[in-house]
Design goal:
Elements: H1 9-20, H2 55-58, H3 80-83
Length: about 100
């Protein structure tokens, strides 16, 4: 998820045109930065990491599932198995990552 003010208007148009041929629609959102004013921000932890918390609010009500993948993740296989996991009774499914504190 990229905050719309970080992408120039011309690049927004080019981005949408580049994926339209694949039947993909990109929705760009403006994020109210004040929502995160009390969140911890550190060197490696910028306000943008919290944007993913807004995903349920930003999606239309007819969407009942979403997969969030970090932008530095390389997907080497079909993620259908991940999508097909039954987690309807769970609010969140995640992988615990241990960060080196050095």
């Amino acid at each position: 998820m990229v905050e719309i003010s970080q992408i120039e208007k011309g690049n927004q148009i080019r981005l949408n045109r580049s994926v339209e041929k694949y039947g993909i629609k990109i929705s760009l959102f403006s994020i109210d930065q004040s929502l995160f004013k009390d969140f911890k921000i550190r060197n490696h932890l910028k306000v943008e990491v919290y944007y993913r918390l807004l995903i349920p609010e930003l999606l239309s009500e007819d969407i009942d599932k979403a997969i969030y993948l970090d932008s530095d993740l390389i997907v080497k296989e079909d993620i259908t198995k991940l999508w097909d996991i039954n987690n309807e009774n769970d609010f969140l499914a995640a992988v615990k990552v241990h960060l080196n504190s050095s």
